Structure formats: structure tokens, C-alpha cells
Amino acid sequence: MIDIIYCSPRENLGFHKILHVKTFNIVEGISEEKNRKAVENKQVDILLAPERIGKKDRLNQRDSGVNDILCKFAKDNDVAIGFSFADLLNSKFRTVLLGRMMQNVRLCRKYKVRMVLASFAKDPWEMRTAYDLLAFGQVLGMTPKEATIALNFTKKRQAIKIIK
User: What CATH number does the domain containing 105 carry?
Assistant: First the structure.
């Protein structure tokens, strides 16, 4: 299992590897236009936290930053959607953010988009164990198998090089 963080690691916490964010091409979701450009670009590995768009939710649907069109582009260009535990930990509106993340998991499952589950800790105290992140994935609606796959994220380009 792999964890992706912004800071230097405090300890291993049960992970096989702890990687720094700079090893991946990560785009943080801030606006709908930026999310769209990120999933259309084949150089991007992870679209991180698209649910952080500051818009209000609609009456019958959450505005989670991901829709069916973005999921199709992400699938075609092999861009993974990232779910950050640190965002949920530091958020004031945890319930709204959790609901948006759950909707994004459903959309990713429907369109078979790869998912990344990591702490993305900016502080060593925000790091969580692998079992905590597995439980977080299951709270979001992932099956245990999907959560394990999301924790074992590697770049497709690296996996292809290893196979060849």
C-alpha cells in the first residue's frame, strides 16, 4: 500500500511506500474549467479533490466537480480522481464534502475511472495508517477491493515500463 503526502514522513504507519507529491503530475481541482483542462491532458496523473469547488449544491443534485463528461475524458486519458483525507480532516463543512466525495465515487465506479485514496498530508500529524484509509474508502462507498486498489496507485506509465 502506498501513501502520497506533501510533507516529510513521520513514520511508516504500515505502508510499503510513502511517496512525495512531486513524483506525480497532480492538478488540484479549483474550478470547473481547471478540472476540464486537467482531465483532457494526458500528462496529468491525478485530479485531486475536484469536490472543492466553492459552488453551492443544486436542489436535487450535489455539485461535486465531476460529471459524466469529465469521467469519460478521465477514462480516455487515464487520469485518476484523487480523494484526500487531509481535506476532509481540515474542512469546516465535512458533511457537504463527504457527500460530494461519495457522489464522485459513484460516478468513478459507473464510468470505470481509476481512483486514488491517500492522506495527502501537509503536516506529519495529518498522516493516517493504511487501515484508516481503507475504512475511509469504505465510508465513501468503495468496496474493500476498490479501496485496496485505490491505495495501491501507481502511474500507468511506470507500470508499462516495468512490464516491458
Answer: 3.20.20.140
pTM: 0.85
Q: Which of 137, 149, 150, 157 is nearest to 44 (CA)?
A: 157
CA distances from 135 to 9, 83, 99 (A): 21, 13, 16
- For the chain, the maximum distance between any two Cα atoms, rounded to a whole number of angstroms, is 50
Count the domains in the chain.
1
Do the beta carbons of residue 130 and residue 13 sit within 8 Å? Answer: yes
The boundaries of the domain holding residue 149 are 2-163
Question: pLDDT digits over 3-47, tens only?
Answer: 787 776 666 666 767 777 778 888 888 888 989 999 999 999 999
How far apart, in whole angstroms, are the C-alpha atoms of residue 102 and residue 109?
11
